[in-house]
Amino acid sequence: MRDATPGRFERPKRIFRATVPLVVRKRLARLLGRRSWLASRHWWVQELLRDYSDGDPNAYHRFLWAHHLAYAETYEAGLRFGPWLTLEAGPHVRAYVTPAGTERWVLWEGQARAAVQVIRPGGWVYLRVGRVLAADIPGMAFDHGQGADAGLELRLGGTPLWGHVGYWVHRASASGALRVETVQGMSLGVALRRGETP
Question: Helices 57-67 and 22-33: crossing angle, nearest 10°?
Answer without folding.
Answer: 40
